[in-house]
């Protein structure tokens, strides 16, 4: 199997449109992690992503009759741009079906390259279904984003370049995983020529379809897929990529949103490139691997797989980057309700910078504050908490509390004793014009809303925190109703951040 794929990779037609991208040394990060870290700069392709390689190579294998009929694909953006550019180069009509959640920058880029764009559905699966419908109705040839040997071979040319650019020892190559085409191509080439090099997949923890498949020993469909890193938001690993990955991938690392945001910042600091979340995914995994495995003085390579992100999303990324790097602690601290207590608290914090301070009067004896504190490193958080506890301040660490970071830090309303039977729910829904109104219409008017917080984060999905007054006899009805309307949600009624600041 490997030999067949290596031949395909060596014969792949990608350089009519793609270019060999540099392998950039990440000097700052290398020093910080005490390893030799390199970033493969696929963000420098003409479409700002590696997807151009696979799309063009697959189209290059089509017959003239297939080209005359036209091509179609379903894509969240990067494959779409690659196919659009490939089709324009070859003079082929291309139709791209994209989910409605696709960032505007990707939609505009596809249109600018002459392809017809159809926005369909809130997720990739709905777009895919419609693309197949067009194949039946129009006779188009479907060019898949990852589950095709020629697409895999096109992506595998990245490995060919990396091994040529760095002929010395390499401990591991970290590869972002969505549908699996990229890691299948890289693993095929690397394991045939250099089986000593580890090939490690990196997935967003809320869309880890390869890890789920490897754990189960077969391809599975995830019940839900997070879409912050929309370039890898795939519910099921591709059939052909999984056939390769289960034999030749050495492991899979999952990372959370904060770790991805921190990696976006790291990419920028070392290369001045602004990667999209999925573009920084493999670096987030590399960092986690180096820190958890205690690897030092080794050569580690990751791939900046793309730089197609909306500018307004950078606000959310910047907000979460410090938490992902463990350079900020978010704490709930109880201090005495008396003059001078905040000054005394700051003395206990010491020379650490207070980044955020939220407070509202509660009672005559105690004040609960929501505070952000800048840290020197990951160990500094435990030292800070210990020093506060030794000074008799009750402390609740909220640094890993998603509701606290998304909502509580922006709410200053305080508790309301007049509100009874309150349940708190956190929702996510696909973000697009009119999405909030549609969410509210679906939510209905069965129970009184006692709290509401929504903030547009410039991300691909909206996040709402809602308090509803629900009598004990209606609690099961609420759960059934929320399950039926289909939005992803969490019951946060027992969340300590809610109990401390809003209850």
The CATH class of the largest domain is Alpha Beta
The low-confidence runs, each spanning 5 or more residues with pLDDT under 50, are: none
Number of strands: 18
Write down the CATH topology of the largest domain: Rossmann fold
Largest sheet strand order: 1-2-10-7-8-9
Describe the protein.
With 503 residues, the chain is an alpha/beta fold. The chain folds into 4 domains: 2-49 and 149-322, Rossmann fold, CATH 3.40.50; 53-142, Rossmann fold, CATH 3.40.50.1100; 326-400, ACT domain (Alpha-Beta Plaits, 2-Layer Sandwich); 415-501, Biosynthetic Threonine Deaminase, Domain 3 (Biosynthetic Threonine Deaminase, domain 3), CATH 3.40.1020. 42% of the residues lie in helices and 20% in strands. The chain has helices at 2-11, 27-33, 51-60, 64-69, 78-90, 104-112, 124-138, 149-165, 181-193, 209-216, 239-248, 257-271, 281-293, 314-324, 341-349, 378-390, 402-406, 435-443, 475-485, 496-501; strands at residues 23-25, 36-41, 71-74, 94-98, 116-119, 141-142, 172-176, 198-204, 251-255, 299-304, 328-336, 354-359, 366-374, 395-397, 422-430, 448-454, 461-469, 488-491. The strands form 4 sheets. The chain has a 6-stranded mixed beta sheet, with helices on both faces. The model has no long low-confidence stretch (mean pLDDT 89). Belongs to the serine/threonine dehydratase family. Homotetramer. Its cofactor is pyridoxal 5'-phosphate.
């Amino acid at each position: 199997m490997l030999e067949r794929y290596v031949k395909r990779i060596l014969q792949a037609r990608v350089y009519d449109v793609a270019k060999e991208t540099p392998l950039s040394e990440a000097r700052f990060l290398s020093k910080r992690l005490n390893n030799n870290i390199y970033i493969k700069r696929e963000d420098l392709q003409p479409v700002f992503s590696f997807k151009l390689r696979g799309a063009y190579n697959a189209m290059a294998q089509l017959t003239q009759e297939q080209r005359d009929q036209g091509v179609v694909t379903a894509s969240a953006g990067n494959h779409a741009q690659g196919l659009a550019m490939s089709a324009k180069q070859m003079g082929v009509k291309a139709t791209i079906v994209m989910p409605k959640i696709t960032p505007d920058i990707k939609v505009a880029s596809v249109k600018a390259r002459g392809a017809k764009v159809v926005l369909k559905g809130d997720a990739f699966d709905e777009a895919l279904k419609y693309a197949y419908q067009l194949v039946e109705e129009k006779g188009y040839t479907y060019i898949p984003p990852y589950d095709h040997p020629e697409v895999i071979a096109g992506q595998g040319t990245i490995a060919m370049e990396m091994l040529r650019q760095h002929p010395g020892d390499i401990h591991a190559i970290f590869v972002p995983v969505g549908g699996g085409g990229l890691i299948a191509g890289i693993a095929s080439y690397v394991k045939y020529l250099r089986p000593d090099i580890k090939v490690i997949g990196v997935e967003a923890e809320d869309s880890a379809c390869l890890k789920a498949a490897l754990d189960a020993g077969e391809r599975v469909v995830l019940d839900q897929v997070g879409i912050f890193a929309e370039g890898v938001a795939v519910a099921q690993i591709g059939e052909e990529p999984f056939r390769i990955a289960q034999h030749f991938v050495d492991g899979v690392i999952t990372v959370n949103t904060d770790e991805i945001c921190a990696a976006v910042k790291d990419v920028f600091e070392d290369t001045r490139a602004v990667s999209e979340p999925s573009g920084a995914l493999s670096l987030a995994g590399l960092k986690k691997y180096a820190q958890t495995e205690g690897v030092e003085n080794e050569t580690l390579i990751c791939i900046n797989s793309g730089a197609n992100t909306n500018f307004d999303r950078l606000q959310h990324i910047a907000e979460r980057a410090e938490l992902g790097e463990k350079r900020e602690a978010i704490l709930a601290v109880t201090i005495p309700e008396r003059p001078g207590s905040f000054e005394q608290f700051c003395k206990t914090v010491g020379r650490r910078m207070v980044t955020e301070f939220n407070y509202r009067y509660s009672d005559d004896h105690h004040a609960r504050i929501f505070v952000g504190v800048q840290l020197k490193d990951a160990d500094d958080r435990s030292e800070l908490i210990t020093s506060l506890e030794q000074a008799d301040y009750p402390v609740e660490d909220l640094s890993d509390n998603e509701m606290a970071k998304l909502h509580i830090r922006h709410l200053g309303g305080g508790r309301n004793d007049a509100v009874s039977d309150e349940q708190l729910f956190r929702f996510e829904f696909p973000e697009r014009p009119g999405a909030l109104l549609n969410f509210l219409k679906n939510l209905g008017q069965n129970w009184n809303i006692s709290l509401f917080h929504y903030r547009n984060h410039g991300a691909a999905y909206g996040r709402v925190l809602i308090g509803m007054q629900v009598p004990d006899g209606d609690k099961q009805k609420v759960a059934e109703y929320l399950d039926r309307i289909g939005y992803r949600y969490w019951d946060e009624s027992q969340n300590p951040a809610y109990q401390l600041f809003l209850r």
